[in-house]
Design a protein that fits this description.
With about 280 residues, the protein is mainly beta. It has one helix at about 5-20; strands spanning about 25-30, 35-40, 45-50, 60-65, 70-75, 85-90, 95-100, 110-115, 125, 130-135, 150-155, 160-165, 175-180, 185-190, 190-195, 210, 220, 225-230, 240-245, 255-260, 265-270, 280-285. Helices cover about 5% and strands about 45% of the residues. It is globular. The model is unreliable at about 1-20 (pLDDT under 50).
Length: about 280
């Protein structure tokens, strides 16, 4: 390695080590082409599938734990209006949550269902549409103090998809709604399950992603700096169990969480203001 390359590597390492990511351990930096990553899912093969949010390509990306894109698939019949999360079911089907709704004015919310992408031989993949609407939303957009219909978080359990909303109200109440829809192609009125308030500081209390553990006994919700761990719950309103709040000590734009295994999380953030754009691990105590 020449002197210039070594100096550049040393500078990058120093910048990473000086950046405060709290309790998160950096696995790798994600490719610059995935600066706006918004969803993660893993199939337990030392890689992770990634999507980006609105304004980006209609593609999903398989990335290894060294931060290299090893496969990309164009999603047919699945335009990226605002992709905000990924989840999978026990059969390996992958779901893309096109339910980002910053201004609470969308009427075209949809979750795309894809077959297992790891076994797709080509460079394109078909998608089925699970279209939905919230029965309690009457205005598009509603008044500022009732903007509860953005969402960046879904997970799969049984034969349902669970949707957790991101609070955009002003003044900020922190309340998040839970809805379910079937995991099959169709048009649905989402079923309202319940609501909870993780915390009330808008800077760190908006839910940005969620996942359920492989054993199904833990649900992890992510915000901009915190984890909310649900245990000892019953279905469908898992918030009636115990909720533990963990401050990660990181204040980057944390957008995605998924279970690598029952005790380890993968978390990613968008690259903003010269920080983030990384894949992290977090070990559950």
């Amino acid at each position: 390695m020449n002197k210039i390359a070594f100096t550049s590597l040393l500078l990058i390492s120093t910048l990473i080590s000086c950046t405060n990511y709290g309790q998160l351990k950096v696995v790798t930096d994600l490719p610059c082409s995935l600066d706006e990553n918004s969803g993660l899912a893993t199939y337990g093969d030392s890689t992770v599938w990634v999507v980006e949010d609105n304004g980006n390509k209609d593609e999903i990306y398989q990335v290894n734990l060294k931060g290299k894109i090893i496969k990309s698939l164009e999603v047919k019949n699945g335009g990226n209006h605002d992709w905000e999360d990924l989840t999978k079911d026990v059969s390996g089907n992958l779901y893309i949550a096109d339910i980002g709704n910053n201004d609470n004015e969308r009427k075209n919310l949809v979750i795309y269902k894809l077959p297992n992408p790891t076994s797709e031989p080509g460079n394109k993949i078909d998608a089925e549409k699970i279209e939905l609407y919230y029965p309690d939303q009457k205005d598009f957009p509603p008044k500022k103090d009732a903007r509860l219909y953005d969402s960046e978080a879904i997970f799969h359990h049984g034969d349902k998809l669970y949707i957790i909303t991101k609070n955009r109200s002003k003044p900020f109440s922190g309340e998040a709604h839970i809805y379910t829809v079937p995991d099959t192609k169709g048009k649905y009125e989402a079923k309202f399950v319940g609501s909870f308030t993780p915390c009330t500081d808008w800077k760190v209390c908006q839910i940005t992603s969620i996942d359920i553990s492989p054993k199904g006994d833990k649900i992890i919700a992510l915000s901009y700096g915190k984890l909310f761990i649900f245990t000892d719950f019953s279905w469908d309103d898992f918030t009636k169990g115990n909720m533990q709040e963990i401050d990660l000590g990181a204040r980057s734009q944390l957008e995605s969480v998924c279970f690598l295994n029952d005790s380890t999380l993968l978390i990613s953030d968008e690259r903003t203001h010269g920080t983030g754009g990384n894949l992290y691990t977090y070990s559950l105590k």
